Input
Amino acid sequence: MNKIVQLLILTILFAFASCSNENLVIEQENQNNLILKKITYERTSFPGFGRVMNFNGSGQYLNSQTLDESETARSYLYNSDGKIERLSYNPLVDPQGGGYKNYVYVDNRLSESDEQFGDLIGAAETSYYSYIDNKIEKLTSENANPNNAKLTIYTFADNNYQQLLRYDYFSDANNLTEPTASIILFYDDDMRIIREEWWGYSFATQTLNLTSYFEQTFDDKINMFKNSLPLELIVEFDLTPDDRNMTYSEVFNRLSSPNNLLRKKHFSVSSNGQENLNADYNFVYTYNTDNYPVAAERYNVGGTNPTQIYTFEYYD
Output
């Protein structure tokens, strides 16, 4: 075959492959970009009891409401940089009993927060945040008694502060020998938290002991929060949505995992090391054509009736 003809054929084939790849990239970019708009949750054992979580156009928390949407339990306010500025609690509806949290940023990093829960005297607290290598330290003191301070240390994989590895809480910031409580998170290669360990300090043995842990598996579909603008991880840690029976890892998985939680086992560990299975439940999802969940039912493993029902809506 003439070399010129061969070259022409190869050029055409290359151009065709390039166009095909380009079309595939464009198709992928235009697919699966849904932003979560609303989550509705209801307990089947208490019909009418549940929550509605609404999200803004960036997929951030907007507010949580009663199931009939007649009362707002929590509302979220953001600054011009998309950082949460204030969280308000409705004393008539929210389990916190009213109050607020304010957040202050310096150079786009969380620097200070203050909070007040209900009208209890001494309930107001102020926290200051320090960034040290791959750790963020949160020093919190009661406004009525500044000497009563506690320290929380968040340890991340690196100083990008995107993958939380460990949480250590010291009830007395002046005594940092051993944390009062710790949570350790374990990830798989896909950034899914597959194990979460809770450790507590024993004054009897003066050691930190494993008290419980969770094991998790996931589906192979798209995480409903995939395109949501995330909050600061340390803020997210404090903003576990109320009445959703969520552990910390479920909150973080919404930020890191590409998939949705499918099954969770909860084990307690006694002081002599004996393990007991306390809870074992799974989610059964309904997906749309883009592989996002649009509904879910939560079952106790072995049970025939769902204990919780969820629906998920997305922006067009």
Summary: The CA atoms of residues 285 and 296 lie 4 Å apart. The longest helix spans residues 3-30.
